[in-house]
Amino acid sequence: MGKQAREFYVVIERDEDGYYVGEVPQLRACYSQGQTPEELLENIREVIQMCLEEGEEPSAGSLE
């Protein structure tokens, strides 16, 4: 059985130290940071995968 592709919104902000901080509103406690936007997106993909593996179900705002 293949993996189903999912899409999520990522809210990105830049903090006072210059880091990019991202949060996925559809998944509880799903956030990460990076020194560049690219690093943040790589990190947030890993966090999303961990949240989904732990059985976290996306809220109604997901893009499925």
Give the low-pLDDT segments. Answer: none
What is the SS-derived class?
alpha+beta
Bulk shape: elongated
Q: Give a quick account of the main beta sheet: strands, pairing sense, barrel closure.
A: 3 strands, antiparallel
Strand order of the largest sheet: 1-2-3
> What integer is the average pLDDT?
88
**How many separate helices?**
1
Distance between the termini: 18 Å
Radius of gyration: 12 Å
Strand content: 15-25%
Say how many strands there are: 3
What is the string of SSEs from the N terminus onward?
Answer: EEEH
Helix % is 25-40%
A few lines on this structure:
This protein is an alpha+beta fold. The protein has one helix and three strands, in the order βββα. The protein has a three-stranded antiparallel β-sheet, covered by helices on one side.
